[in-house]
Amino acid sequence: MIELGGINKVYGTSEASSTVLKDVNLKIKEGEFVAIMGPSGSGKSTLLNILGTLDVPSSGKYTFLDTDVTSLTKDQRSLFRRYLLGFIFQGFNLLKKTTAIDNVEMPLIYLGVKAKERRERAYEALKSVGLENRAEYEPSKLSGGQQQRVAIARAIVTNPKVLIADEPTGNLDTSRSHEIMQILQEFNKNGITIIMVTHEEEIASYASRVLHVRDGILEKEVHNAH
Amino acid sequence: MLINAFLQALREIRRNLMRSLLTAMGIVIGIASVIAMVNIGKGASLSITNSISKLGSNILFLTPGQQHGPGGQSAVAIPFKTKDVDLLRESITALEAISAVESSTMTALYGDQNYQTSIKGIENDYFKIQEFSFHEGRDFTNNELRSGLNSCVLGKTVVDKLFIKGEDPIGKKLRLQKFSCEVVGVLNPKGANTFGMDQDDVILVPLKMFLRRISGNDNVHLIMVKVKENIPLEEATVQISQLIHERRHLKADEEDNFSVRNMSALLDTISQITGMLTIMLGAVAAISLIVGGIGIMNIMLVSVTERTREIGIRMAIGAMPQDILIQFLIEAIVLSGLGGIVGVIFGISITMVVSHFMHFTLIIDPTITIISLLFSMLIGIVFGIIPARKASNMNPIDALRYE
Ligand SMILES: Nc1ncnc2c1ncn2[C@@H]1O[C@H](COP(=O)(O)OP(=O)(O)OP(=O)(O)O)[C@@H](O)[C@H]1O
Ligand SMILES: [Mg+2]
Predict the structure, then answer these.
(1) What's the whole-number mean pLDDT along residues B108-129?
(2) Could you give the residue ranges of the DSSP H alpha helices within B176-222?
(3) Boundary (domain end) residue, out of B235, B256, B277
(4) B222: containing domain
(5) Given an 8 Å threshold on Cβ–Cβ distance, is A78 in contact with B315?
(6) Cβ of B403 under 8 Å from any chain A Cβ?
(7) At the N or C end, where does chain B have fewer CB atoms within 10 A?
(8) What is the pLDDT of residue B311?
(9) Beta carbon of A191 within 6 Å of any ligand 1 atom
(10) Taking a contact as any Cβ pair under 8 Å apart, which residues of chain B between 293 and 312 contact chain A?
(11) What phi, psi does A58 have (nearest 5°)?
């Protein structure tokens, strides 16, 4: 489904430049659960952001199904994310002073879903992460684990093809982390492709495939037995 | 999408209520002054027009000198003489009533009360021209008029100030600086005129007495005439002008050094003055609207910076740059539009208060209300576009990384 060919990412000017990703080649099939690991500063987030079209590569080719993603305009990339992707961030990134259900509804607004259906779908999404009884809570009144579950509900409410998660458990304690991973694994079993960055082996073990990045280079692959 | 952006904007404004209110203040002041200005202006001129038709539009004012626009009195302003008044009365048949009017301000004393008021020397026709009626007593006798005896007629305000309640002023003697006069009549109250002046705050005395005791000469600075009902005002004006023109030995092509005006000419002068005031107030309104607009732009720029992360989240979720643009633009429009609504409410309140105290007809023009509201929203668009563009031009990844 996803294919990266010769992806490079260079920051800075031609004199003082730093190459963050070097000739990354990668194929991800539909329904996979991929974990990306590596030391801090190795380029994991950069790679994930390129996959999520939040960032663009300096060179190389990115194809998604039959679409050449690298040739999309800014507007088209927005639509690509709107219809096909869901995002989960380390810092949850919920809107402040906005109730859980309003946060979950937000992507549906951009999809043009009518208010009533929006409410129903957002409620279902909250239910799928076990938070239907916290629908009217604002993020400040939710625990970290609960906030991340709201964020997951927001990411899956549009039925995306791919979930992009950058250290989704980075701000959570161990037992909360496992809760989150179990939820993600459940969605993966239901057919959503997940690409996740983590630096914890334990978290990566939930994935069906682990990629290692070092100094911008994609290293060996390990296939977990699941 | 638009409805959601609107609801979102309201939510944002409520979140920063104090800041939003202060930001919208410039718009509030600007719109309020426009509304008040236009409505009061209209009410005032309607009142003036009404009172002219009520008071009889058939009244002419003769004054020495020529008025060239507001404030531009010509140099040669030779006063009239009492003989001029007599001549007009005898020769022009179109006149129903005519009276010279000389006025001054003086302090009247009665008992231990004193009160400063306007004192006017007049002839009996004055009561007819001004449509004064008598509460008690009478107008001046021929004898009083001819020999300038010390008698006077009081307006209601003067009676209230000088006499205790229930005391009958008729026959009492007032002291007016160096002379005294006996009260022969009290007028029915008329209230304030169109310009807010109390018409009952007056002491009327025979013209002869005024000239002898106060001015000490025979000069007359105002002649009021009432033209007969069936005679056009222009015709009477021409007749009067010609007579005075000849009497003053002016050449045929020479400009009149006096003027004969009616109330509508007075109205023209007033509207010239109010026109100037309107331009000045309009400038104030324009400046405060621009300042208000800049205030909105400023606060929107702050808001865009504060909410950079939110912009990043929305973009990640699939908002297109134009969605972000619309969201912030609508927020600016709602902010300035709310300022406009509050401004309209203030403006209408000011109009009501001023109209009440100035005795103007209360007019609230719907057109100017709608135009003001639309204009306030236009300000939101004009000054909101830069912050909105700044927001929509952000890169999702940079916006998400923003701390
Ligand atoms: N906007 C930028 N400009 C310049 N350099 C950047 C920029 N963004 C990232 N980098 C650099 O790219 C490199 C990789 O960053 P990246 O965020 O991908 O690392 P990471 O693997 O996610 O690290 P971590 O585990 O700490 O999150 C870092 O050295 C970083 O300094
Ligand atoms: Mg990272």
Answers:
(1) 91
(2) 207-210
(3) B256
(4) 79-256
(5) yes
(6) no
(7) C
(8) 94
(9) no
(10) 309-310, 312
(11) -75, -35
